[in-house]
Amino acid sequence: MRNVCMIVSFDGTAYYGFQTQPGGNTIQDHIEEGLHDLTGEKLKVLGSGRTDAGVHARRQIFNFHTESLIPIERWCMALNGRLPDDIVVTHAFEVPLGFHARHSAKQKTYRYCINANQFPDLFQRHTQLHHPGKLHVLSMREALTSLVGTHDFTSFASRHSTKVNHVRTIYHAEIQLDTSMCRPGEPRDQGLITLYITGNGFLQHMVRIIVGTLLQVGEGKKKPSELQTILEAKDRAKAGPTAESKGLMLWDVLYDFTEEFPSPKEHSL
Amino acid sequence: MRNVCMIVSFDGTAYYGFQTQPGGNTIQDHIEEGLHDLTGEKLKVLGSGRTDAGVHARRQIFNFHTESLIPIERWCMALNGRLPDDIVVTHAFEVPLGFHARHSAKQKTYRYCINANQFPDLFQRHTQLHHPGKLHVLSMREALTSLVGTHDFTSFASRHSTKVNHVRTIYHAEIQLDTSMCRPGEPRDQGLITLYITGNGFLQHMVRIIVGTLLQVGEGKKKPSELQTILEAKDRAKAGPTAESKGLMLWDVLYDFTEEFPSPKEHSL
């Protein structure tokens, strides 16, 4: 028995999220079908977590236990040949039997992209929310600081969250503004506003509700100081709407590494 | 009567090229339908040139004559509301009546992207040719130098070219290698190889045949010095295959500007 861990990127546009759903058409379903075709085994894939329908991943991590003797360097090529072209596995490692992609994960980073130019960037239209109209980025940054640290994030979780404990820790959050794609001399173009947020875990819809609330701050509909009040209310109704899934991407998942489970790169998988 | 010039970007994946075809489903068809809906006029759009099915454009230029009195700053927003989300107009200018997007064009630049990493970049899968396996970039650059200047490009034109004269001038051509997307320490990843090529005009399939031939040079199947021989042969059979259209993008079209027809930016439209 071996425990194989892989990194997968996917364009989530066409899928109902990572994790298997009764309706089918998930990333996990495609990976499990590909692995079944490859190994003949009915394998159960464990992801580092769910992603919502339409959300993308640069680096999602999963693992599975297998009796297959396929050499580790062959797994990616063999599995990619059995996956649609919007799902690509890029790394495979053999890990200790006890490794569990979800339980062993220490940190996750998500990215959310908002295109605040007058017109969308059509080559990025599936991975950016288009928001024509200026946003006050400094206010959004100020609001964001209230969320860093350990808090009960009930106000920023879906009412359908199945978790008992809504306390999570945000280690780092920042908003970048990139004006390189603005048309020269065009005052209606503001640039690309990108949020990176890293925490020990995220509740259902949490990043999207944070973004929906930050958009209201950027539009002047909420003050940056209200984020503190919203957190304390522990009431989903106090926060902003859930931002569209297409702007969201699971950027990275971090694990603690040991000599037994060495990292291929700077302690990130 | 006014002459309106616009810049359009499009993802060509779903279309049979820019110019109207008997089978329909072209960029021009969608623009003309949008303009008809907007103005009530049956307008004829003049593009700076054709593009093949599946080829993209960052900046394609077209113009049309209209009786409409819509203010120039309203055209983009109004037309975008009538276009599918993979076609976006980004600039509109009123130009002298004699301006003709094709006849007035002085230079065109095309870009061709080859992803030479082991696995494709799935978020760029519609705009990059995936070529796993190393390419000898220095040889490709050496080969490319033979094409710069004024030559008869019959060997690099489709056999179906309707042009009588196949002499064209390439002003500039370069190949860039970007390794930023390579996986650290992964010897099978080479990076992104991008060709930019600027000339006074391009024959049907010309850039794609140049790329197909350069790929053979990069693979060691042809020597860089053979490009000279291929040019002199004036025989399509001597050049390489026509590279896939999805890696190609019309990057820019340049015009001579006068005081009458001022440039919004550095003498490029």
UniProtKB/TrEMBL annotation, chains A, B:
It catalyses: uridine(38/39/40) in tRNA = pseudouridine(38/39/40) in tRNA. This is tRNA pseudouridine synthase A. It comes from the Bacteria. Substrate binds at Y110. The lineage of its organism: Bacteria, Bacillati, Bacillota, Bacilli, Bacillales. The keyword Isomerase applies. Keywords: Isomerase, tRNA processing. Residues 7-102, 143-256 form the Pseudouridine synthase I TruA alpha/beta domain. Pfam families: PseudoU_synth_1. InterPro entries: PsdUridine_synth_cat_dom_sf, PsdUridine_synth_TruA, PsdUridine_synth_TruA_a/b_dom, PsdUridine_synth_TruA_C, TruA/RsuA/RluB/E/F_N. It is an enzyme of class 5 (isomerase). GO terms for molecular function: tRNA pseudouridine(38-40) synthase activity. Belongs to the tRNA pseudouridine synthase TruA family. Coiled coil: none annotated. Homodimer. The gene is truA. Its EC number is 5.4.99.12. The active site is at D52. Formation of pseudouridine at positions 38, 39 and 40 in the anticodon stem and loop of transfer RNAs. The keyword Isomerase applies.
